[in-house]
Write a structure and sequence with these properties.
The chain has a four-stranded antiparallel sheet. The protein is an alpha+beta fold and 108 residues long.
Amino acid sequence: MIDKLDSTTEQKDSPSNPKLRTTAKPNQRWGNWRFNAENLTLGFQHPRHNWATELDLERTNTPAGLLDAIFQTVGGRPDWVFTPKDKADLLLALERRLARTSGEGGPL
């Protein structure tokens, strides 16, 4: 699965290429994370605080870039920002998203 994310592989669901748009359900959720099929982001809205962030999946098209984005998004934040469930939900969303992009796994 990972080798299909390198920068030499054409992205299968890039918004810049209408023929390759994702078939993911718009606004699909994993806990507090929401997949935005329009711009290929995973957005997080904190349930109790006025705070949100997003992870741009189109720009993270290499394994190193994805890992960096994950650590930049959740790393070093206070415990009240991302609960262990929020972190697990992010990994589940990425697993489903990457499995779909590489042609493996079930529906998003």
